[in-house]
Amino acid sequence: MKKINLSLFIILTLVVISCGKKEESEEKNEVVAKEPVIEDVEMSIEFKYGLEDTFKVYYSTENTNIDGSLLMEEPVYESTGYQKVNFIFPQGDYPKIIRLDVGNKQEAENIEIKSIIIKHGDEIIDKSDWVTNQNWSPNESLQYDEASKSYKIVAVNGQKTPVFISNTNIQDKLKNHFDKK
What are φ and ψ of residue 17, in 5° steps? Predict the structure, then answer.
């Protein structure tokens, strides 16, 4: 009799423990499922540039002018071939206006941009490929050379400050995309 009672006690204890763990597991799954997933916003630039330098991205998360407070920097390396640099915006920062500074070396002579892609998670918001569309406006330090399909970097007031700024096409795409979120 003692053996039967002991066996029943052990079986009941295992059943109770097992059921309790199942309920805890279901509660944890519910908590995880309720948390929103924040996906990264990423801007990738594919380009040719012959110097070791730094590219910078300034941006605004509002539809206001860029004030310089939001900045990301990435090193680029001397190369005769195409290279790629990725800027990943801080989580929760959704850019509305973007400025891309393509180097600050005064000896720079040209840059060739193959593409600039802006993604949010797996969704492509804009792909400027410089063949079918270009949604970036260069400043006066960047003069397009049709023959070489690249930009000559020239001094303005004694300084080379090559900058691309997102034009209204991209700004509208960014605004429409992130206003839905």
Answer: -65, -45
Q: Phi, psi at residue 98, to the nearest 5°? A: -130, 140
pLDDT band at residue 81 under the 50/70/90 scheme: very high
Judged on CB neighbours under 10 Å (0-12, 13-18, 19+), 115 is middle
Phi, psi of 143, rounded to the nearest 5 degrees: -115, 120
Instruction: Say whether pLDDT at 33 is over 80.
Output: no
- Confirm if 73 and 103 have CB atoms less than 8 A apart: no
Task: Supply the DSSP symbol for 159.
Answer: B
Residue 8 is given by DSSP the state H
Q: What value does the mean pLDDT of the chain take?
A: 86
Q: b or e along 152-165 (b: 16 or more beta carbons within 10 Å of the residue's beta carbon)?
A: ebeeeeeebbbbbb
Beta bridge partners, 138, equal 164
Strands 136-138 and 163-166: antiparallel
Within 10 A of 138 (CB to CB), how many other CB atoms are there? 19
Dihedral through CA 96, CA 102, CA 105, CA 108, nearest 10? -150
